[in-house]
Design goal:
The protein has 195 residues and is of the alpha/beta class. The protein has three domains: 95 residues, Rossmann fold (3-Layer(aba) Sandwich); 27 residues; 47 residues, Arc Repressor Mutant, subunit A (Orthogonal Bundle), CATH 1.10.10.60. Helix content is 52%, strand content 10%. Strands 2-1-3-4 form a four-stranded parallel β-sheet, with helices on both faces. Helix 1 runs parallel beside helix 4.
């Protein structure tokens, strides 16, 4: 995918879907057409980083036509129902952080913080609407359990290494493993059998 402004082609005849995706991808270059024949020549010349195609009759033919216009090895092509395309637009928004540019690995630390921030906003709003209380401990435990589980998986179940990776004491890690009921499996490397 290109590093310049992220360009998306939406092929759909649904005006509601057009508006929803335009709101989601407001900072990206979005070209909307009802079918391949209606794509402006200038947009084709510029190229696309992603193509969203509404699945309908004749869509397989349309997919073949899109593959001729867009280099599939350089673009993401998604074909599906309206709900799939709406979710794909959300994913594209996250991938670009809504900035119009694809986020690179050099910004991975910022990406994580921004993704968490956007998801937290949705979580807090949903919890507030449900009149929830004590969000801080609830959220910390929701994040802490998978973080510890992933650290244990990454270290092959070695609690000393996992504690070091997490920056906590081994006894604290053991306490949290018990508290969160995290299964700990240690996988031993297969030894070659002598013949």
């Amino acid at each position: 995918m290109r590093s310049s402004t992220f360009s998306v082609l939406l092929l759909s005849s649904d005006h509601e879907l057009h508006e929803k995706i335009q709101r989601t991808l407001k900072n990206l270059t979005l070209t909307v057409a009802r079918d391949v024949a209606a794509i402006p020549r200038a947009a084709i010349k510029q190229g696309f980083d992603a193509v969203l195609i509404e699945a309908r009759r004749g869509a397989p033919h349309e997919l073949t036509e899109v593959a001729r216009l867009v280099e599939p090895s350089r673009a993401m092509i998604v074909m599906g129902a309206r709900s799939v395309l709406a979710r794909s637009a959300d994913i594209l928004h996250t991938m670009t952080n809504g900035s119009g540019r694809l986020l690179t690995r050099a910004r991975q630390d910022v990406v994580l913080e921004e993704i968490i921030e956007s998801k937290l906003g949705e979580f807090v709003k949903g919890m507030r609407n449900g009149a929830a209380r004590n969000l801080h401990p609830m959220l910390i435990s929701a994040v802490e359990r998978p973080l510890i589980a992933h650290a244990l998986k990454e270290t092959n179940g070695n609690q000393i290494q996992a504690a070091h990776l997490l920056g906590m004491n081994r006894n604290t890690l053991r306490k949290k493993i018990t508290e969160f009921r995290i299964p700990v499996k240690r996988h031993r490397a297969a030894t070659a059998s002598a013949t």
